[in-house]
Amino acid sequence: MNYGLEFELLYPKEDAGGAAEVRRLLRASNLDVEPDIQFFVVARKERRIVACAGLAGDVVKCVAIAAECRGTSLSLKLMNEVQQVASIERGHNHLFLYTKPENAVLFEGCGFHQVVSVLGSACLMENTPVGIRDYCDMLAAFRQPGERIGGIVVNANPFTLGHRHLVQQALGACDWLHVFVVSEDASAISYADRLDLVRAGLAGLDRVTVHAGSRYLVSKATFPSYFLKDAKVVEACSTALDLLIFRRYISPALGITHRFVGNEPFCAVTRKYNRDMHEWLEHASEEGPALRVVEIPRLEVGGIPVSASRVRQLLGEGDFEMMAHLVPATTLALMRAKYAGRARARTFRRETRIIEVK
Amino acid sequence: MEITKEAICGTLESNDLLVKVAPRNELEVVISSEVMRQFGVRIREVVEETLLQMGVTRGQVVIEDKGALDCAIRARVQAAVLRGCECDELNWGVL
Fold this sequence. Notes:
- The complex is a heterodimer of chains A (358) and B (95).
- Chain A has helices at residues 16-28, 74-90, 104-108, 131-140, 161-171, 191-201, 231-254, 268-282, 308-317, 320-323, 329-357, and strands at residues 5-10, 39-45, 48-56, 59-65, 96-99, 113-118, 122-126, 149-154, 176-181, 208-212, 258-262, 292-296, 300-301, 304-305.
- Chain A is an alpha/beta fold and 358 residues long.
- Chain B has two helices and four strands.
- The interface between A and B is medium-sized, with 17 and 16 residues.
């Protein structure tokens, strides 16, 4: 049925001709090439690419099959190949993928299972029937008694007095608080350091559990923009998937009844995320019990709301005196010891480049 | 035998199965199959027998079955476990 079918890896950055062929194949399925794809698994028939699937870390993206090859179980062979390659070459045994809900059944035949689905827009799948369940079992061990259990998700890039203020305010309104630190290592401050600083910054506060983040919680790599052209739709449904995972799985595992969030005076994207929180967590639906979303006004120092982005700006400028008003001593010490040098090194490199250009 | 790392074996081709093993404190076998209603019980028997023979008492074994025969199931489970145990010396007599 699949005579002369060959699978190979294609690195789009090294193989311009192959990349163009993949782009044409994707375009025929109304998809775009995502820039973060490291390589494609492609199937060739008589040297022509008839199917492709991209891999960006542990996320499968940009899966397309030429129209004339559909209905030949090629998708099964392709997705099998992707899982073998990801496991053996990259050590990724646990894969995620986004697709349109109407295509979910196709991937279910290839060993993928649905995590959450937003009707009419997007569906998140993983290649194990027990991935999210194992995660919930792990979380459930941290359950605490109480009627009002709070949850906060922070990136803490880096941890500021604003974060501490948010946690203290939230603690005033609940019996126990679970704080999750976004684990995606895509921020200026490394995940390990962000987690350490949150733990250090919240030391001494009772009734708080600090959790390491996970792939199921605001993970930036798992962003379903690949099959949707309209950036606004992308944004809307990506927050929906993230929030529905929180509502359907994470909240019930820990008994979380309230999600606390700092109000957002600066960043439009975060402001939208806060708005979406009310929509997806509070309103009645079949996605598990509703939560209350509580927005807490930001801490202000000298009439200006404290934000991590302001702290990073001060880090770039090397203004540690000003920074000392915005962050706890533990954050200040680490910024000074570890990140100040880096900020300087970056500035230095930029200067040398300018000289070369001249 | 002790499963010490994640490993996979097999394919999703028709008449085959994909086996994934991972370290866990308890033994758990999760089976999805195209022929669950007809042969689900038998598939579980074969898997559990194979694990017992190999002395696997802990670990997670996740199976995506595409209608494999018993002998294929046994072989794939054995290979996945051996990979997951990073086992170099093998007692073929037991298998």
